[in-house]
Amino acid sequence: MAAVAVSTAPGLPGDKLDHLVKTNQPTEHTIATQPDITYHPDREKWHARTARRLAEDPSLPSTPLPEGFPKKLDSPLVWEGKDWQDEKQWVHELSADELKEIDDAVHHFHGLNLHLGHVSRETFPLPTLGLVLLELAKELHQGRGFFVLRTIPVASYSHFDNVLIYAGVSSYIAPDRGLQDKNGGVLSHIKDLTASQAPGTIGGPAYTTDKQVFHTDHGSDIVSLFALETAAEGGVSRISSSWRVYNELAEHRPDLIKTLSEPWAVDEWGANPPFTLRPLLYYLDSKIVIQYARRYFTGFLGLPRSKDIPPITEAQAEALDTLHFLAEKFSLGLNFQKGDIQYINNLAIFHARDGFRDEGERTRHLLRFWLRNEELGWTIPEPLQPLWRRTFDVTPKVQTFAIEPVVRAAVKASAGIIGEMK
User: Fold this and answer.
1) Which superfamily does 37-422 belong to?
2) Number of H-type helices and E-type strands within the chain
3) Does residue 1 register a pLDDT over 50?
């Protein structure tokens, strides 16, 4: 990938790794042992690994930060869960007049007889609510980085119209919808589908009742979730400031910032090439950007970590655990209700989910968009730009919207061939 010096990648000597990337052939180094680490973080193993590494090299906490990286970030994006005392600080309660505007916009769009890909500010007019949403969009990029809209009366609308409302409202936050699957799909369903899928075919926790650990989504400025239904028990949505986590690392473990800012071998699960190289952490335009999901380095269920790619190092394993447990420490649990729409800055905020239990009609079901606002959006670091181009290079005409739940090809194991979109 552009701007990634493969010779500096951890875990392999530069000449061996350069040969591996150019030829896609395994070397003796690719069979090195993967650290004892799984998708679900183990606090005891984390403490033991940290203690072992510090005992082996007591100078690690004195490691200089990578060149140009700040010692401390000062921004509204630096927060802890305890800083938020009242959900009114981040929830915008939709008024009766605003809900009437949304309903009018639904009827207006139907009258245009357009494909759903053409939902926009122009085709889904919200005269007064639209102005509110434009201001909330600034909060994502320039403020605390998250907010919740409460609440769309989902039971009053068809599946199609709920998707229409979601797309229409979101067009004011960020007009560009990103691909989440290789078939033009810009909408994903987050729901337990294990009962309808063959064992071993699901490779992502979004389609299970399992806990999701802290992560960012793959290749998007903004991640949005729309709750069509909540679980009978559990399923709490959690977010955490990666900027607060950065400050903690910069003060106490700058060596892990160095590790995160170096290229990692990101599993492509059977694609060609079998892995890509890029850092997980960047500093650009006075902003820290982090893009990582743990399963790319540990695997999950039907998509285990590929064998013929470089294993992660002990330093990388510690960094993954440290990111999760610090994010957990500083996190905020959101009271996500049926009909709520949640928006977060995916470049600066981690998100996670508790495990949950469905029962009867209380079956947790969320919709998801990946979004970008070209006017307000941050500059994307060069190594991530190919990923962003793949995500947002989709015209309205070819966008597809899965009205009913399906498993994305990207997280469905099938004869070792995985979809291009991750």
Assistant:
1) Clavaminate synthase-like (3.60.130.10)
2) 10, 19
3) no
